[in-house]
Design brief:
Layout (H helix, E strand, L loop, with lengths): L18 H30 L3 H25 L6 H33 L4 H30 L6 H32 L2 H25 L11 H9 L2 H29 L3 H26 L5 H26 L13 H34 L6 H56 L5 H24 L5 H6 L6 H5 L2 E8 L4 E7 L4 E5 L2 E5 L2 H16 L6 E5 L5 H7 L6 E6 L3 H9 L13 E5 L2 H7 L4 E6 L15 H9 L1 E12 L5 H14 L4 E7 L2 E9 L6 E2 H9 L4 H9 L5 H5 L2 E4 L19 H6 L8 H9 L10 E2 L2 H13 L4
Parallel strand pairs: 5-6, 5-8, 6-7, 8-9, 12-14
Antiparallel strand pairs: 1-2, 2-3, 3-4, 9-11, 10-11, 10-13
């Protein structure tokens, strides 16, 4: 520790035996906090949206509350109060806040959606809502560590225990992240998860109160004027700056690594839980090791500086693994039919890449505590100040990486900037040591070591690999894509706020649009057929499709099919990533009828669900083609509440169409999607897109009233001269007439009740679909799912199709033959 003559007693005599118990309590506290974090982000994301701005608002508010709590608690709560009682009341306050959020958020959500809209006013309102719900509980969470730190004295041993408390809290957070992601929310919902966290809070509070009652607390009595202490603390500005930079590089790196690993593993909820857990494991282990070292070191500043300089090498290691090594490991994802084997492999690969720098970031906190500690200082203020500086840096890092750095200078240069910042932090803190009172020989040796590490850091910065185009385009299939998907040139790659986007062109001229590490749309016949089916069913079924909404632009083929209907007057496209419409306009205009530049089209960059919740408009047709349901966040566009919102925004006679994939999925997930849709649209129907005589994907179609299609009227309309572009669009996907499109009919809701019996209804409070679908992304069960579904499908329903009898007989025969379904 610093050169100070401190009493070596860790704590009040007779109370040391409770210190291990306090670590256990902090493990429980951290576990509850992470469960709440996952639950609150899920609940608030459904209300204010899951765009980059909305997630930035949530993250900034959450961490900002913790920063304020850690900073303000020691200043407003007297150090004479028993720290365990304060800690107990903080835990009870967190639990009460969790219950209030569970109860109050649905009420406030209604007010928010009635007031909110687009633009800067909407962003401000999102921030107000996030602050209302997140600041009170996170303020209390941030106050827990400074509160409990007053239980120990300002000695090397005491500072060591503060580090152990911090490590225990992180260890509990690991448990909470895994418990929430793999069990509570997978099998239950946000209500059950909240009650589990509440039980943990109450248990921790009761045990803390019991220990407080059984023990005596004698607050440290300082003879030093508080202003003198503050002056001494302010002299350690370098320590606070360095731990702030450490927090910034840690959270910014985590944001970037999460984006990259989500490409490599598939952006499922399980992937996010794994990444968070491994990162926290590294922080916890590093903090615990450093806490043990702090007891016996007289040079914590050197240790803190060494951590920052070693971080430059460790961050380079992770960058190399994520950009040049792991994507090219000889692993075939399709061999992992058991999803739990895939999860184990992802866990190992994440640990291999992420643990080294995480260990050093974790170690930085106890070393910073020891470096900033001074005799006579309130231990609560010490911990609160260091924790606040670290958290403030983390806020800056997370927001800058997610909203600015990656889109501005790209992944490679962002990592280089972060490594350079870590180098600066290490040099700053070690420069103070060089100007100290150590012997000249020691200072010279230290200067030489710093110089060597700086050179190594410079080499590391220059050696950071570029982001591989193959990883952006093919994700987990980077190594095997040539074998399974053929060679293709990647002609565009872009890094957006919410997604990486790529465009490839194969030797036969096929254009593919890539997002989330896979092909999401292409000019291949099977893809074009699905995309245009979505668009044409949305406009041909309603009687008067004037105003239409397209959620998810992709390559623009669906929106293009919607836009060419002569009766369409206004088409609104809502896309969450602003790179996507640009790519669609530049590379796919010939396939999407140049929809982006169509004067009837308005493009809005926002979360589709948020837009539908907050708009006052009503539509004659709404079509939704989101990313795969296993992609975290996509399941929010398949919930019962989302479909009810869409239903409420329909004009009389309006229609909702929804994409459902059979590939890279499992039967439970497909059943959940269909059953949830039919729960809202009991007269709904299914239309199939085939590949090699088997179902590839589906279109769900729903209306408020029973669907009725006048076949004669539809044929006459499409044969009119003004519909020539529509007729050409249909012929390009293999439909020589509208009868072929209608022959893709594969059943109504009433026909599939037995098959859908017991299917999980995807609701806002559980988002069950993302957990079901996340277990099926490497499966190839489309043919099995389709066969089981068709076993329950009937002949053509007479009540749905009307028209001349001979024409209906032809259609019935086409449906029965299965030519198009």
């Amino acid at each position: 520790m610093n050169e100070s003559n401190l009493n070596q007693t860790t704590n009040t005599p007779g109370t040391d035996r409770y210190l291990f118990l306090l670590i256990v309590l902090f493990i429980g506290s951290g576990c509850a906090a992470l469960i709440y974090e996952v639950v609150w982000f899920q609940m608030l994301g459904l209300v204010i949206g899951s765009s980059a701005i909305s997630l930035g608002v949530l993250l900034g508010t959450f961490m900002g509350g913790m920063c304020l709590g850690s900073l303000m608690m020691p200043r407003f709560v007297s150090s004479t109060r028993h720290p365990l009682r304060i800690y107990a009341f903080l835990e009870l306050g967190i639990g009460i806040s969790g219950l209030l959020i569970l109860w109050a958020l649905p009420l406030v959500a209604g007010l928010y959606t009635s007031w909110s809209g687009q633009g800067i006013a909407s962003v401000m309102l999102r921030g107000i809502v996030a602050a209302m719900f997140l600041l009170p509980p996170t303020f209390l969470m941030g106050a827990t560590l400074p509160a409990i730190s007053r239980w120990v004295r300002m000695t090397p041993g005491g500072v060591s225990w503060m580090g152990f408390f911090y490590g225990g809290n992180i260890g509990g957070a690991v448990i909470g992240a895994l418990l929430a992601g793999f069990y509570l929310l997978r099998l239950y919902d946000v209500t059950i998860a909240t009650f589990v966290a509440l039980v943990i809070n109450v248990t921790v509070a009761l045990v803390s109160l019991a220990v407080a009652r059984a023990s005596t607390f004698s607050p440290a009595v300082s003879t030093i004027d508080e202003r003198t202490v503050d002056e001494k603390v302010s002299a350690h500005w370098v320590v606070y700056l360095v731990i702030g930079i450490s927090g910034m590089t840690a959270l910014a790196s985590e944001v970037i690594w999460t984006r990259l690993l989500s490409l490599l593993f598939g952006a499922t909820v399980y992937t996010f839980s794994i990444i968070l857990a491994i990162f926290l494991v590294g922080l916890g282990i590093g903090s615990s090791i450093a806490s043990a070292i702090v007891r016996n070191t007289n040079h914590p500043r050197l240790a803190l500086g060494a951590c920052q300089l070693l971080l430059t090498i460790a961050m380079g290691w992770t960058a190399y693994q994520l950009l040049a090594s792991l994507p090219f490991w000889p692993i075939d994802p399709l061999l992992a039919a058991d999803p739990w084997l895939k999860i184990q492999m992802d866990l190992v690969r994440t640990a291999w890449a992420v643990l080294p720098p995480a260990l050093l970031w974790g170690a930085s906190f106890p070393f910073a505590l020891a470096a900033a500690a001074k005799p006579g200082q309130d231990s609560g203020r010490l911990v609160g100040g260091v924790y606040a500086a670290n958290t403030a840096g983390a806020i800056l890092g997370a927001l800058s990486a997610s909203l600015i750095l990656v889109t501005w200078i790209g992944t490679q240069h962002s990592i280089q900037v972060l490594i350079s910042l870590a180098t600066v932090a290490g040099v700053l803190i070690l420069a103070q040591a060089l100007t100290g009172s150590a012997p000249a020989k020691a200072r010279l040796s230290l200067a030489g070591a710093v110089l060597i590490v700086m050179v190594a850091s410079g080499i590391t910065v220059m050696s950071i690999p570029e982001l591989p185009k193959q990883l952006v385009a093919y994700g987990r299939f980077t190594q095997t894509q040539a074998r399974f998907q053929g060679q293709a040139d990647i002609i565009y790659m872009g890094e957006g706020r919410t997604a990486f986007v790529a465009v490839s062109k194969s030797a036969d001229g096929t254009l593919s649009y890539h997002n989330a590490g896979k092909v999401q749309a292409s000019s291949m016949p099977v893809d074009m057929r699905l995309q245009r089916m979505l668009g044409h069913l949305t406009t041909l079924i309603p009687e008067n499709p004037r105003r239409l909404l397209v959620i998810g632009n992709g390559a623009g083929a669906t929106a293009g099919a919607v836009s060419i209907d002569p009766r369409a007057e206004k088409i609104t496209i809502v896309e969450i990533e602003d790179l996507v419409p640009q790519v669609a306009a530049e590379y796919f205009s010939q396939l999407n009828f140049d929809v982006i530049n169509n004067p009837k089209v308005e493009v809005i960059i926002d979360d589709g669900r948020h837009y539908l919740l907050t708009t006052k408009e009503k539509f004659d047709g709404i079509t939704s083609d989101p990313l795969d349901p296993w992609v975290k966040g996509s399941a929010a566009l398949y919930t019962k509440e989302f479909f009810e919102t869409a239903k409420q925004h329909l004009n009389p006679g309006g229609v909702v169409t929804q994409f459902v994939q059979l590939y890279e999925s499992n039967e439970d997930a497909v059943k959940s999607e269909i059953a949830t849709f039919f729960e809202v649209f009991p007269y709904g129907s299914i239309w199939v897109n085939k590949l090699r005589d088997s179902g590839f994907d589906l279109v769900l179609l729903g209306q408020v009233e029973p669907t009725q299609i006048d076949v004669d009227k539809l044929l006459n309309r499409v044969s009119a001269p003004e519909y020539s572009t529509v007729a050409r669009s249909l012929s390009e996907i293999g439909f020589t007439s509208p009868l072929d499109l209608l022959a893709t009919f594969a059943g109504q809701a009433s026909d599939l009740q037995r098959w859908l019996e017991g299917a999980a209804i995807n609701r806002d409070r559980n988002l069950r679909l993302q957990y079901l679908a996340g277990l099926g992304l490497n499966l190839d069960q489309a043919q099995l799912i389709y066969r089981n579904m068709l076993a329950h499908s009937p002949q053509m329903p007479e009540s749905m199709f009307t028209g001349a009898k001979p024409l209906l007989q032809v259609l019935a025969q086409m449906i029965k033959s299965g030519q198009f379904r």
